[in-house]
Amino acid sequence: MAPVRVELTMALARELGVLDKVELVGCAPATDDELALVHKRDYIEAVKRVSANGLPDLSCGLGTQDNPAFAGVHEASALIAGASLAAARAVWTGEAEHALNIAGGLHHAMPGVASGFCVYNDPAVGIAWMLAQGAQRVAYVDVDVHHGDGVQAIFYDDPRVLTISLHESPRTLFPGTGFPGETGVEGTAVNVALPAGCGDSGWLRAFHAVVPPLLREFQPEVLVSQQGCDSHALDPLANLMLSLDGQRQAYAALHALAHETAGGRWVATGGGGYELVQVVPRAWTHLIAEAAGAPVDPGTLTPESWREIVTLRTGEVPPLHMTDGRSPEYRDFSGGYDPGDAIDRAIMATRKAVFPFHGLDPLP
Fold first, then answer.
1. 326 exposed, middle or buried (CB, 10 Å; 0-12, 13-18, 19+)?
2. Torsion over CA of 314, 319, 320 and 321, rounded to 10 degrees?
3. DSSP 8-class letter at 235
4. Are 226 and 250 in contact (CB under 8 A)?
5. Closest CA to 207 of 253, 272, 160, 266
6. CA 286, CA 245: separation in Å to the nearest integer?
């Protein structure tokens, strides 16, 4: 979770000219009242105490290996939440059609406890703010390799929010939740639990078998996405096998679905991603470029100036191209279901659990 991953992402986007195609705006830290849209007041106060003295407080989850206690933790986390709020405001008010907070996507934070590197749940704060402004249908799609448990938990009983998470099976990965049977109220919690080893073709097959039909039926006013790139084969913390090129296809699909189902309104956040040089900067630069409507050709060389920054900041050998050299293809699920295939079984478990709630046929 080293902050250098965001620094290198923004540097790559800048050196490639991607940031010339977007408007960079500042933001204010989320206030206590804004954080309290999803977090308990006593939890916010506990985080502020840890922030002031740097001492652990295990009652609020700070002081663990995943969530260390440190001076300034509240201020840093409130700033990330404030950035996602600024993105949500810009899209909800029509100031921008798409808005991104690359540092956000801290989807594990619960109302009263920090979890999984996450202190304040910035996507949930942004969604809750839009609900308070009168939104009646917000869709949240989470493509992080880990289950988006915090966002699901916060809106589990709220039919105005459709949460969809595609992730590695909770049988093999933190946080141990995200089974298909977790369906929320009226089937508005959707979980696609994919087997370890799933690569581009299987992941894209699952995505297209579940996400587009539900978004088309739900017709959200805004699409919010969490774009964790830890599904990549090189990520050290998980076991899916996607390539940068498969992830790039997912960004394009979400962009198209925002226009098709949500009037073009798209709020995107970062998330997980722990291969800090080879994966995160390239993946999220592609994401920014996609949202800007100016995708980067995957054959593009990474700029020499950026490679020098990587070497200086990390001592690692930087990647030379904006691609992993793959051209992912997938078989559409409408062509039939193979009960002997683990990915197809995962798809069907999800479709059987939630599609009937939405008037959709779970069978291909």
1. middle
2. -140
3. -
4. no
5. 253
6. 10
Residues marked as catalytic: 108
Q: At 130, which helix (H) or strand (E)?
A: helix 122-132
Sheet with 266-269: strands ordered across: 98-101, 266-269, 222-226, 138-142, 161-168, 189-194
Give the tens place of pLDDT for each residue, 121-180. Answer: 999 999 999 999 999 999 999 999 999 999 999 999 999 999 999 999 999 999 999 999
Question: What is the gyration radius of the CA atoms in the chain, in angstroms?
Answer: 19
User: What is each CA distance from 173 to 165, 204, 238, in whole angstroms?
Assistant: 14, 20, 7
- CA distances from residue 314 to 143, 278, 280, 306, 318 in whole angstroms, order as listed: 27, 12, 14, 12, 9
Name the helix (H) or strand (E) containing 200. Answer: helix 200-218
pLDDT of residue 1: 85
Task: Tell me how far CA of residue 340 lies from CA of 60, 213, 343, in angstroms.
Answer: 44, 24, 9
What is the enclosing helix (H) or strand (E) of 268?
strand 266-269
For residue 62, give both structure tokens: 């700070």
Q: Nearest-CA neighbor of 229 among 347, 102, 82, 140?
A: 102
- Three-state DSSP state, 2: coil
Q: Is 307 helix (H, G, I), strand (E, B) or coil?
A: helix
Query: In degrees rounded to 5, what are phi and psi of residue 3?
Result: -60, -15
DSSP 83-114: HHHHHHHHHHHTS-SEEEETT---TT-BTTB-
Continuous segment of H or E residues that includes residue 163: strand 161-168
DSSP 279: T
SS3 80: helix
Q: From CA 103, how far away is CA 109, in angstroms rounded?
A: 15
Cα distance between residue 170 and residue 116, in whole Å: 14
Q: Which helix (H) or strand (E) holds 150?
A: helix 149-154
Please give the model's pTM, rounded to 2 decimal places: 0.98
Rounded to whole angstroms, how far apart are CA atoms 47 and 109? 12
The 3-state secondary structure of 60-75, one letter per residue: HCECCCCCCCCCCHHH
User: What is the amino acid identity at position 117?
Assistant: F
pLDDT, tens digit (0-9, with 9 covering 90-100), for 50-61 = 999 999 999 999
